[in-house]
Amino acid sequence: MNIHIIMQGKGGVGKSFVAYLLCQYFNSLGNTILPIDTDPNNATLTAFKNLNVTHLEIYNDEKEVDPSKFDKLIETIADNNCDDCIIDTGASNFQPFANYLINNEVLPMLLDMGHKVFIHTVIIGGQSLNDTMIGLKSICRSFNTDIVVWFNSMFGNIADNKTFYDTIVYTENKEKIRGVVTLPKIKNEFEADLNSLLKKHLTFDEGVESPDFRLMQKQRIKNIKRDYFTLINNSLVGLE
């Protein structure tokens, strides 16, 4: 099984959207998937009923990882024979989640079980660029596994006078950073349809079939799906 953990210490950057895309992309390949939502505050992925997301509460009232609840997460993975497991984590518990993975050597254990582990993290432009780069640096420093970076350009330009490939974070960790996916800012009418789709908690295919969308809206949703899936396929080739 391929295990995809989506992590970032900055909230509101699009982690759940990345999980949403990955679930549907792997489905489109004919893969069986196990989506898991561990966000204690905003269980966004869980709201997409068609994805059959398992919501696991792994934190106690002090926002610390509860070992017995985390055990259930690992057991859920171990007892499943799906092709891809997608885990959406919460920003507010980024550090406790990371600490538990490190202190309990969870990633080496999963590797020993025959799984492949990928950590996906999101970088955004604008005022939060530095915060998300710090999150990436922390992930690179903490984990010895394949890392996939997602640029979410909807918040502003990522480059900031130099490309990502020139940054110290990349040059020091390029052997770990195995994939880079750039999510472009889409045209206004396409963005409106995508936002409507997400607000209704529908997958791309559900949107195309839904009577709530008109003919040209459905056509734009098809185009959005095609473009995102092509982008993901081209960026993640060789990571299966």
Task: List its salient traits.
240 residues; alpha/beta; Rossmann fold; 2 domains; seven-stranded parallel beta sheet; 7 strands; 17% strand; globular
| Tally of distinct domains | 2
Helix content estimate: 40-55%
Number of strand elements: 7
Mean pLDDT: 90
* CATH class term of the largest domain: Alpha Beta
Number of helices: 9
Annotated CATH architecture of the largest domain:
3-Layer(aba) Sandwich
Look at the structure and name the CATH superfamily of the largest domain: P-loop containing nucleotide triphosphate hydrolases
Spatial strand arrangement across the major sheet: 3-2-4-1-5-6-7
Rounded radius of gyration (Å): 17 Å
Q: How many strands, which pairing sense, and closed or not: the largest β-sheet?
A: 7 strands, parallel
CATH topology of the largest domain, by name, is: Rossmann fold
What's the structural blueprint in terms of helices and strands?
Layout: E1 2-6, H1 15-28, E2 33-37, E3 54-55, H2 67-78, E4 84-88, H3 94-103, H4 106-112, E5 116-124, H5 129-142, E6 146-152, H6 168-173, E7 177-183, H7 188-199, H8 204-209, H9 215-236
Parallel strand pairs: 1-4, 1-5, 2-3, 2-4, 5-6, 6-7
Helix pairs in contact: 7-9
Description:
By secondary structure, the chain is of the alpha/beta class. It folds into 2 domains: 2-185, Rossmann fold (3-Layer(aba) Sandwich); 187-240. Helices cover 43% and strands 17% of the residues. It is built from 9 helices and 7 strands, in the order E-H-E-E-H-E-H-H-E-H-E-H-E-H-H-H. The chain has helices at residues 15-28, 67-78, 94-103, 106-112, 129-142, 168-173, 188-199, 204-209, 215-236; strands spanning 2-6, 33-37, 54-55, 84-88, 116-124, 146-152, 177-183. The protein has a 7-stranded parallel sheet with strand order 3-2-4-1-5-6-7, sandwiched between helices. Strand 6 (146-152), helix 6 (168-173) and strand 7 form a beta-alpha-beta unit. Helix 7 (188-199) packs across helix 9. The longest helix is centred in the C-terminal third of the chain and has 22 residues, at 215-236. The protein is globular.
